[in-house]
Amino acid sequence: MQCRMIAFTAVLCISACAKHDQASQDTVKLGPAAAPPPGLTLADFAGKWQMISTPVSGPDTTAVKYTLTATADTSGWVIDFPSGVKAPLQVTLSGDSVIVKTGEFASQRRKNVKVWNDGAMRLEGGKIVGSGTAHYIGAGADSLLKQRVEGTKMP
Predict the structure, then answer these.
(1) 123: which residues sit within 8 A by CB, 6+ positions away?
(2) pLDDT tens-digit series, residues 77-87
(3) How far apart are CA 120 and CA 104, in angstroms?
(4) Integer angstrom CA distances of residue 139 from 29, 53, 91, 144
(5) Could you give all domains of the chain from N- to C-terminal order, each with its CATH number?
C-alpha cells in the first residue's frame, strides 16, 4: 500500500512538472509593443469636398448639394451652396470625428426660413461620411430634420 502511495505521488509530481514545462514552452515571448498609429488631425480632412446631404426620413428626401472647404486647423471651414450662400463652420476634433456647427443662414431646403446645422463627420474609405441635424428657426413641431451626409474630395 505504501509503495502504491509513493508511486502515485511520484506520478503527480512528474505530471505537474511536465505541465509546468509545457506551459512555459507555450508562452510566446513578444518584443516591445508597437506604437499606436498617430491620431487623426484636422489636416486629414483638409481640402475641398463635394458634399450631399439627404434627409433620413419624412416626406422630403430631396438631397442638397454643397461644397465643404476644410482646413488643417479650426479656422476657415465653410459650406458653400450653389445659390451663393456661405455658412462658416465651428469645428472640433473628437476622436475619429469632426464635430461641426454652423451659425444661422438661409435654408436651401425651405424658402424664407433660417436654419442652423450641427453634426459629426469622419473619414471612411477616402470619403467624408456622417450625420447632422438641421434646426429650422420658428418652424414649431417641424423644426428638426435629421440628415445623412457624404462627400468626395475634389481634385
Answers:
(1) 40, 44, 45, 96, 129
(2) 999 999 999 99
(3) 18
(4) 64, 20, 26, 8
(5) 42-153 (2.40.128.120)
